[in-house]
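Please check both lines for our workbook:

___
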Amino acid sequence: MGQLRIEKVQEFIKQEISQIILTDLKDPRVGFVTVTRVEVTGDLQHAKIFISLMGSPEQKESTLQGLQRALGFMRTEIGKRLRLRMIPDLALAVDESLDHSVRIQKLLDEIKQDESGN
């Protein structure tokens, strides 16, 4: 399967999962979620959805649980919207890169404050 097609499928799934989370999921546990990227295997059998979660550790865990329970629903919705013979199995992965970036920025800000205060 061509790399371009896989990239198109990944982008399509990313957009559709974002839309499904935003408008179709009714689970009150699901808080603020950003789909950062999707990785699909070359045979289109598996898709890993990378998400960034906002909120307290408890809110993040609750959101993750709600999303895990909704994976079957999301896969069914992707199947309706994506015209492929095989709909990939979906898995979630928490993308920590945004949290890491925020921590680094806070540290840099603290260093800058310390230097200007001396």
In short: Residues 3-117 form a domain with the GMP Synthetase; Chain A, domain 3 fold (CATH 3.30.300.20).
